[in-house]
Design a protein that fits this description.
heterotetramer; A alpha/beta; B alpha/beta; C alpha/beta; D alpha/beta; A: alpha/beta; Rossmann fold; four-stranded parallel beta sheet; 14 helices; 8 strands; globular; C: Nucleotidyltransferase, domain 5; Nucleotidyltransferase, domain 5; 2 domains; five-stranded mixed beta sheet; four-stranded mixed beta sheet
């Protein structure tokens, strides 16, 4: 698959691969956030599909259920859940990512219940006790999945899925390294598209895509960059938003987005042990999402190290209007970054509003004029 | 840059000093004399407490609250740790320590809005000045904004019980803890209604106890805890007495008491002052029940508020409603259904504390496995028990957890009980989001059209329509 | 050699032409529905006034909402954000300026500069309750007065009406409501200006204000808002010797001079 | 019996005169400053045109935000009551009316006697009201009455997605600056208003027969989008939908 194909396939709800996978009788399980260990779905022989809103911003069906004080990303996803777009899913996994997403699931299931629906309850604080709770919760989920779909998940299945994901994670990391080069091999937009495509494929096949991309771009060099940026903040799967930033000469050399590197950074399985405990630890200990409520220093340090590693000139922190956890976290992060002399641009935007890009563009342009000197 | 730097806590404490010196019985003239000392905003808001029909009881209540604030102020000098807690944390937990004192941020914000000139908006502005989003919760942000931006009383630690119940709340606590560099202790709620959830919760509670013991430098004493929880049990009895009194038609419970009940729950539950205030409230309501006293000609609508009320204009909400014949049967914050604690051992008492925390408002409802299920159950139960004609949701735009599922609650209430839900919008603590006049108008419109129409004789449009249609047909 | 700046905003369009000696001429008008037409018209008027042609302009920078289209249509060689333009314009106008409060038609912004006049930070209105020129424009319409009148008239108010809504959309209804109930226009105008100033201060709070402060944009001409802002911020604002409304276009022309010389 | 209904809104005052069940006169005027004399002038003008003597009016009913300003009103009714009454009276089996006012959208359900059984206003922070349409048309120098024919020429989807009217306006300006055509922009504006109405209507999911009232519903492009997305049968209000509340008020004047 070439980069153009990746960009194209990442921009659709059901990519060609997924369509074929479905028509060959494959099962697809939707999930919402990076606290969901996809290994369990793959170990069950199914495709984990991360819910997206694909920039959709029609919400008139969703708005009869969620309110206008809910973030527009969640409303957009709910719209797709209620208008039938997501009917191709064979099951749905809820996680308590935030109050908005919980509400999104709850309304979806109230109006249009999925045949298989399971709630994975992710603790908000990482402690020994909560880790134990999460481990057990993963086990319950696995049991529910096995029972409903009449499949078996052995420890070996899980370990092989973990190993497979470890390879994916390593290759995604490689891609981000190529994006971080002084003369980058990928644009931020391209990398985001690749990440997104990966959330809608079986990992064995996605690995091949990554191999190809890495091979194709090994010696590619992008020049003429005005400034290097880190993009962080709330659920952002709008490739066109990154495109807008980069079209003005900013290169997104690093990200801290949950559709981006947050989904794999720092996650490495150990050598052995109870696979559920391994998964629980790996996912809960490396969850750089502000829905965790005492771990700000971890998120701050992670961001600062990304800024240093990717040599970014500035940071753009974005959040969708009404997103509470990122709305507050972005302020903490901005204060911490500015203390270290790193310029920050905070953006509050409407999800997917392509025309909101106009408002955003002025700010980004001015920010680039500021940091590029 | 010119900004008045005096903090909310200090300013509120000054007003509380006035209240502490107040006599228990005040004539209209004496009251007027006192009120003249106050600036217009404070005078207006505080006047709600002093309606002659419940003035004496209000004074007992206010004195209990002022006592709490003034003791918090001197806590650090007495070697006690002043600990900020959220409303959804059982304060008796902290009252159980002799060397610690709880201060509830939402109660403080509310007192700031009620007692201060300018309603504490300047502290909100301070928080906004840091760049915090304007869609976060004012109930926390007003008080915490003061801590962040002014010269104010500084707590020594912050306890957060919101993870699982409210993101905004939990998030702002984290922010404050880092900004002020004070430790944050967490009691997280597993969104899990099964036994496993409660088991984990008891574990978390025990962890919190050890963390606090270490921070405070005091082991939680069984005797002291037993004494506090014994008093909490008495508060529980009084809570249910008031609950039962609410059932009568017309309601003998003054509207504003629903607020008193949870103000007590969130600050002094488990203290003698709490018992005194609750007993005085029960007494008054019993007298009103006997006398069938009601401030309006008739009770036109019995309204159950399903989440919060509005706190920026007490006279024009609680008292205005009462005088218009709209009974306020309590709101979601009253729905904590306390259980008597088994005082026989440390274990049973800790379990009692965990149960109390589990059942705190918001935690109990939207902090459950489903955000809508327990909330709906509690509202349906209360609407049925209290004979509500309608329910009202005060949609604070910050309360995303309830906004997320209020459509489900609305449908269930209608399907199961035929009780309509009015959805209002506006910040509960900041008058500038939706002016009280708009709120009053919407309540009246709703009651006139949806509630009273069930009672009054139908208009005779139907017959006229038939005649008109016949004529048209001819 | 002549350099030009064209600023097409949401309410007004401005053009400035300068040479090494300073501003030669400027022009301002209300926008037409199409930004390209606005740019063409406003610069056309200026050129006509000066007996010049488009070819006489050595280098032009466009800014404001229409900046990209204006460049695409060949009327400018480069487009630069209005933030940079306002900053540079204000700085050149008075080297002491470090903070600029610019209230445009659709956007309000606070710009901070370092000692060299370079952009150090900026914030724009993303939140509710922004005070913008548009807000004042709508209020003037409701009151039936002009933008020039609303400032001076409110100075004589003894009792400004307090606006109880945060959202500017609802304030308009509120004003109509008061009008219907016979409140004086003077007190309403004063209330509106006060509300406007409060909104601007909320934005200003998001950056640490550094002395000295200059106000630009059309609203800078509103004496009542300006006075209230000075009171709330506790600082006297710098005066701009040139029309505060053209600072953006002036900055654009100055940047054109700098860029064109490269 | 001759009755007069008077609906005083924040932007317009509307008057309807009924003789029994027939509407015999009506009129609309923008409300600006001196409202009391404006109302008087409006009523006098309407009556004069219809040749009705003021003394023949047996009952005046006022409604709307400024109802208390109608000095000689016999009584005041809520706007929803009036809208529901009018909708019920003229449409045989209507069980929901959605009223698009200057600043809010109100959906109301009715029982078989035309009594309101439930109602709901739209969420705040909404760009979907009449006020938004008016502001946009002013901004783009288009008469309100020209919106419909203009939007009808649209052949491209231009989305206005900001829910805050202030930002939605910036969005519109961005569209203008991006060279989008006015018909497409106005079609987008109409759709955004319509979508608000749809969300509101869907909150009364059991409604089967609905009507739309308020001046905005004179704009066919808005109504078309609503009808394409809302389930249930649409019944057009048979008179000027902007007058619905005034008509309802007049109707109720004869019923009480």
């Amino acid at each position: 698959m070439k980069m153009e194909d990746v960009l194209e396939q990442a921009a659709v709800m059901q990519n060609e691969y997924l369509k074929k996978y479905k028509s060959d009788g494959g099962r697809v399980i939707g999930y919402a956030c990076i606290a969901t260990p996809v290994e369990i779905v793959e170990a069950a022989g199914m495709l984990p599909y991360r819910l997206r809103a694909l920039g959709n911003n029609r919400t008139e069906i969703a708005d009869a259920h969620l309110s206008r004080f809910n973030c527009s990303f969640c409303r957009s996803v709910l719209q797709l859940g209620l208008d039938g777009t997501y009917d191709f899913l064979d099951g749905l996994i809820e996680t308590n990512g935030c109050d908005h997403i919980r509400g999104m699931f709850e309304n979806w299931q109230y109006v249009n219940p999925s045949e298989f629906f399971h709630y994975v309850r992710v603790p908000h604080v990482m402690t020994e006790d909560s880790l134990e709770y999460f481990t057990n919760d993963l086990r319950l989920w696995s049991e529910a999945l096995q029972k409903h779909f009449d499949v078996a998940i052995s420890e070996d299945d899980l370990w092989s899925a973990i190993r497979q994901q470890d390879r994916i994670r390593a290759k995604l990391k490689k891609v981000t390294e190529m994006r971080e080069r002084d003369e980058p091999a990928f644009t931020g937009t391209e990398v985001m598209a690749a990440f997104l495509l990966g959330t809608a494929m079986m990992s064995t096949d996605f690995e091949k895509v990554l191999d190809r991309l890495i091979e194709q771009r090994e010696n590619h060099k992008i020049t003429d960059i005005k400034a290097r940026l880190l993009l962080g903040g709330s659920a952002t799967d709008e490739v066109e938003f990154l495109e807008m930033i980069e079209s003005q000469g900013g290169h997104i050399s690093a990200d801290n987005l949950c559709y981006g590197s947050r989904a794999f950074w720092g996650r490495e399985a150990g050598e052995s042990g109870d696979p559920y405990a391994v998964l629980a630890g790996m996912y809960l200990e490396n969850l750089p999402c502000p829905r965790m409520f005492v771990e700000f220093p971890y998120r701050r340090d992670l961001m600062i190290s990304s800024v240093e590693r990717a040599k970014t000139d500035g940071v753009i922190l974005v959040h969708n209007k009404f997103c509470d956890v990122h709305g507050v976290d972005n302020v903490q992060l901005r204060l911490a970054l500015e203390k270290r002399g790193i310029p920050v641009l905070s953006l509050e935007k409407e999800y997917g509003a392509t025309a909101d890009l106009g408002r955003m563009k002025t700010r980004v342009q001015a920010f680039l004029e500021r940091i590029a000197g | 840059m010119e900004i008045n730097q005096q903090g909310l806590f200090d300013r509120v404490a000054k007003i509380m000093e006035l209240i502490e010196r107040m006599q228990y019985k005040l004539s209209d003239e004496e009251l007027e004399g006192l009120m003249n000392f106050l600036p217009p905003d404070s005078r207006h808001s505080l006047s709600a407490f002093f309606e002659s029909r419940f003035r004496d009881t209000s004074i007992i209540f206010l004195k209990a609250i002022s006592n709490w604030i003034l003791r918090a102020r001197i806590a650090p000098e007495q070697g006690k740790k002043a600990i900020i807690v959220p409303f959804n944390f059982p304060v008796e937990f902290i009252h159980g320590f002799s060397k610690a004192y709880p201060i509830t941020s939402e109660v403080l914000s509310t007192l700031g809005v009620v007692a201060l000139e300018g309603q504490g908006e300047r502290y909100w502005d301070m928080a906004m000045g840091l760049g915090l989003p304007d869609h976060i919760c004012s109930s926390n942000t007003i008080e915490l904004g003061s801590m962040l931006g002014s010269v104010d009383f500084k707590p020594q630690a912050i306890v957060s019980a919101a993870p699982g119940g409210c993101d905004v709340n939990a998030k702002i606590h984290e922010f404050v803890s880092h900004y002020l560099d004070i430790p944050q202790y967490i009691l997280q709620k597993p969104p899990d209604d099964s036994e496993r959830g409660m088991e984990a919760y008891i574990k978390y509670t025990n962890t919190l106890i050890s963390e606090l013991e270490e921070f405070i430098g005091e082991e939680l004493s069984e005797d002291r805890l037993r004494s506090v929880l014994g008093k909490a049990n008495r508060c529980t009895e009084l809570y249910y007495e008031l609950w039962d009194l609410h059932k009568a038609r017309p309601s003998p419970v003054p509207n504003i008491f629903s607020l008193y009940i949870y103000a007590i729950r969130f600050s002094i539950w488990g203290t003698d002052e709490a018992i005194t205030a609750l007993e005085a409230m029960v007494d008054l309501c019993k007298k009103r029940l006997e006398a069938k006293a009601y401030p309006a000609k008739e009770e036109r609508a019995r309204t159950l508020w399903v989440y919060t009320s509005y706190y920026f204009d007490f006279p024009n909400l609680f008292n205005w409603m009462e005088e218009s014949g709209y009974s306020h049967l309590g709101d979601g914050l009253d729905l904590f259904f306390p259980q008597p604690v088994d005082l026989s051992s440390m274990d049973t008492m800790v379990e009692g504390l965990a149960t109390a925390a589990w059942n705190m408002p918001m935690t109990r409802q939207v902090g459950g496995e489903s955000m809508s299920r327990q909330w709906t159950e509690d509202v349906v139960h209360s609407a049925r028990e209290l004979n509500a004609d309608c329910a009202i949701y005060c949609g604070h735009h910050s309360c995303k957890q309830t906004w997320s599922v209020v459509s489900i609650l609305r449908k269930e209430l209608m399907d199961r009980l035929g009780v309509p839900l009015l959805i209002l919008q506006g910040d509960s603590w900041i008058r500038k989001m939706t002016p009280i006049s708009v709120i009053q108008h919407e309540i009246e419109e709703f009651v006139n059209n949806v509630v009273s129409s069930k009672k009054k004789t139908k208009r005779k449009l139907r017959k006229r329509r038939q005649n008109n249609n016949q004529q048209q047909g001819e | 050699m002549l350099f030009a700046g064209i600023d097409v905003g949401s309410l007004t369009a401005e053009a400035v032409v300068l040479n090494s000696g300073g501003i030669i001429s400027y022009e301002s008008m209300n926008v037409l529905p199409n930004p390209v037409d606005s740019a063409h018209e406003v610069m056309g008027r200026l050129l006509k006034k000066q007996g010049l042609g488009w070819d006489d302009l050595h280098y032009t920078v466009s800014t404001g909402y229409g900046r990209e289209k204006v460049q695409e249509e060949g009327m400018a060689q480069q487009n630069i954000s209005e933030i940079s333009c306002h900053g540079f314009g204000a700085y050149t106008e008075n080297l002491e300026v470090r903070t600029i409060v610019d209230i445009g038609g659709q956007d309000a912004k606070v710009i901070k500069l370092n000692g060299n006049g370079e952009l150090a930070d900026f914030v724009m209105n993303d939140k509710c309750a922004a005070g913008t020129g548009h807000f004042l424009e709508i209020m003037c319409k409701a009151l039936g007065v002009t933008l020039d009148e609303i400032g001076p008239m409110s100075l004589s108010s003894r009792k400004p009406v307090r606006m109880s809504n945060r959202c500017s959309i609802y304030v308009e209804t509120e004003v109509i409501h008061y009008l219907q109930r016979g409140e004086s226009k003077v007190d309403l105008a004063a209330g509106i200006n006060k509300a406007m100033a409060e909104r601007v201060v909320a934005l200003v709070r998001r950056v640490k204000v550094e002395e000295r402060v200059m106000m630009t944009g059309g609203v800078a001409k509103n004496i009542a808002v300006r006075k209230e802002l000075e009171r709330m911020l506790g600082t006297r604002m710098l005066d701009s010797k040139i029309d505060p409304q053209i600072i953006g276009a002036y900055g654009a022309a100055l940047l054109a001079q700098r860029e064109g010389a490269r | 019996m001759i009755t007069l209904g008077c609906d005083i809104g924040s932007l317009f005052s509307k008057v309807a005169v009924m003789d029994g069940d027939d509407i015999v006169a009506s009129g609309t005027a923008a409300t600006t400053g001196n409202i009391e004399s404006e109302i008087k002038d409006l009523i006098d003008g309407v009556l004069k045109d219809a040749g009705i003597d003021r003394g023949n009016i047996e009952c005046t009913v006022a409604t709307g935000n400024g109802a208390d300003l109608v000095k000689d009103a016999g009584f005041v009714e809520d706007e929803v009551t009036c809208v529901a009454a009018a909708a019920y009276f003229y449409i045989d089996k209507v069980d929901m009316a959605i009223h698009i006012g200057g600043q809010s959208i109100t959906a109301m359900s009715m029982d078989e006697d035309g009594e309101v059984t439930n109602l709901m206003h739209n969420d705040k922070c909404a760009s979907g009201s009449g006020r938004f349409l008016e502001a946009m048309s002013r901004k783009l120098n288009i008469e309100i009455t020209d919106i419909d024919p203009l939007a009808a020429q649209s052949d491209k989807d231009v989305l206005i997605s900001n829910q805050c009217a202030v930002f939605a306006e910036s969005e519109v300006i961005t569209h203008v600056n991006n060279g989008e055509k006015l018909p497409d922009i106005f079609a987008g504006i109409c759709a955004s208003v319509a979508n608000m109405v749809v969300a509101q209507g869907r909150r009364f999911s059991s409604a089967e027969d609905y009507t739309l009232t308020g001046g905005v519903t004179r704009i066919g492009s808005v109504v078309d989008v609503i009808n394409s997305k809302l389930s249930g049968n649409y019944h057009a209000f048979p008179h000027d939908p902007g007058l619905a509340a005034a008509i309802g008020a007049a109707l109720l004047g004869a019923t009480e």
